[in-house]
Amino acid sequence: MPSSVSSRRNKKGFLFLAAGVLIAVGAYTAGWYYLAEKIEARAKSDLAALDAKGISANCENLHTAGYPLRIDLVCDSISWRRPNVGISFLAGRITSGSPIYAPRSLTNEIVGPAFVGIPGLVPLELRWDRLTSSTELIRPTPSRISTEAKGLRIGVRTQTTSATPLAEIADLRFEANGFSGPLQTTLKFDGLTLSQAATGNTPIPVLSGSADITFSDAAALFQPRPGSIEERLRGQSGEISNATLSLPSGGSLTISGPFSVDEQGVIDGTFRLSLTNPPALAEMARTAFPDQDRNISTVLFALSAMPKDETGAPTITVNVKRGKATAGFIPLGNLPTL
């Protein structure tokens, strides 16, 4: 008799537990779809607001996905055009969203190809094996944006259905922090291969590199303004902490130093150039410019007498005043205005 009572109690306990789980799942599901509906409506409202500002933005078949642990917005294809400044971007499927437990950590994945139009640049076609980005959202501006591309291929759009290859990059990573003040940017790439269309008949080896650059005013840098993209650097100052271009043979060129750009696009700065493994750099230069062998040998000899940094690499200080570059008393030429 007692065992029968205990059995009935256990069954009731299990039924109550099962009912509680079903109610919790049902409530969570209802809440998920409620939030998804609100987010989808907000996205459609934002698209309409862009259109009212003269920006053409289209998200084909906008819908939500990601249940149960994420809320994602999905577009089968996207397009973004700002005709008054000549900027356009078209791409394939995009999935953008965040986990339920971290709603300010936004991740995005885009399917190529993409077609990019920017003032001052030729129309570009981009293809990739994988392209993802992530954003930390803190109103009114994001605190961090990072992008990673695998197997990136860049070409010049010559016709509606074809493009001339310019470059391939095996691995590309970019990160930016501090959108409400000084902007800190980091770029790294590996396996950069330039096509003959980009280099002519000059043989260039596979390259890799990195750059850490700080800009003084992020808000001004991203403020809408007419003109080419490089004109956004006007009025900016900052510092190149480290920018390095490396060869497979071990040679590398590193530049660092502060810079500024005035409102007319004229550059000022003081830069330190360091050359690691100069013989490897000279060998690459001889391959690219065989008719300059004697001059390259002279430069290589001169480098051996120059000051060295803490790693033993020859170092040159280049001063740029009002766009005119000099190394000591030796004029190096004029930098183009931005």
From TrEMBL:
InterPro entries attached to this UniProt entry: DUF2125 (IPR018666)
Pfam families: DUF2125 (PF09898)
Official protein name in the record: DUF2125 domain-containing protein
Organism: Phyllobacterium phragmitis
